[in-house]
Amino acid sequence: MVQSNSSPLTPDEAQQQFRLAHPGRGTLRIQVSTAGGAFPVPQASVAVSRAFGGVSRTLYRGVTDISGILEGISLPALPDAYSQSAATAAQSGTDYQVSVYHPDFVPVNARPVTIYSDIETILPVVLEPITRI
Questions:
Q1: Which of 8, 12, 45, 115 would be a feasible disulfide site paired with 26, CB 3.0-4.6 Å?
Q2: What is the DSSP-derived secondary structure letter of residue 123?
Q3: φ/ψ of residue 26, rounded to 5
Q4: pLDDT, tens digit, for every residue of 88-121?
Q5: Whether the predicted model's global pTM rises above the 0.90 cut
Q6: CA gap 129, 106 in Å, rounded
Q7: Which residues have CB under 8 Å from 66's CB, separation 6+?
Q8: Domain boundaries, the chain
Q9: Terminal CA-to-CA distance of the chain, rounded, Å?
Q10: Three-class SS state of 120
Q11: Is the alpha carbon torsion for 40, 44, 49, 55 positive or negative?
Q12: Rounded to an integer, what is the distance from CA 100 to the centroid of its chain?
């Protein structure tokens, strides 16, 4: 039996290691709407997170504009070269979770999204109204 003297990384160490391994940058645009996408939801709170060492860390927080859009979210991504090689193409994206909250709608928690270097990813999120009795 082989024993390892290394201890698990702390969440801070895991986050630092992640940033070093993901030197590229990709952008995320979130479009929040309701009624099957017919109406924008302004002033929705958005959080983008990722787990590091088993602990979820929020990397970005923002609020949608009057059009229900939050754009220009820059996130770490794997280098472009990963998507151009057959050996690494399957792992070329970097996964994050997006949560959206508005007091008049049912929250969306940990919606997965994949970010690619030098690419804008558009994530539509459709909220359902809260039924009040």
A1: 115
A2: E
A3: -125, 160
A4: 556 778 999 999 999 999 999 999 999 999 999 9
A5: no
A6: 6
A7: 40, 42
A8: 25-127
A9: 62
A10: strand
A11: negative
A12: 11
